[in-house]
Amino acid sequence: MKTMLTVAVAALLLPLAVQAQTTYRWVDPATGRTVFSDQPPPAGARKATRQNAAEAGDERQPSYAARAAAEKFPVVLYTSPDCTDHCAKARDLLNGRGVPFAEKMVQSGMPELEDLKKLTGGEPFVPVVVVGKQHVKGFEAAGWNNLLDLAGYPKAAPFGSKPANPLAQ
What we know:
Pfam families: DUF4124 (PF13511), Glutaredoxin (PF00462). The chain has 169 residues and is of the alpha+beta class. The chain is 38% helix and 21% strand. It is built from 6 helices and 7 strands; from the N terminus they run H-E-E-E-H-H-E-H-E-H-E-E-H. Residues 16-20 have low confidence and may be disordered.
């Protein structure tokens, strides 16, 4: 009976211990590389920061693979206010893969419209996705997935990730 009580208490306290983990980030003075660890940084480390999991709250960053791909091949989604079905599917595909992206809402008289015309050869057609220097006009899931695969984006968002709110950027 006492063993079962001990196991039950340990099972209840385990999530609290996991949640209280601390993550350290610093720049290694020897190599100049950024290090993430659960161990405190050595003396002389530059740009050292500490964050408790409890302090992080619900701010979830994209996966490492998505951040690495976004650094080399940033994604921009061009939409318009009257594009509902295809633009929603485009957003869902990007969010489903955990792709960080900026969304540009195209309206007449706005600089985004001129950018889109240059990109598409004068035809303001939405949705358009730009991945690095490549782009695809219109929503066609296979073509978009192929472009994202080639850029190194993950095929699925990590469990528990939140959809991007690109218009808030």
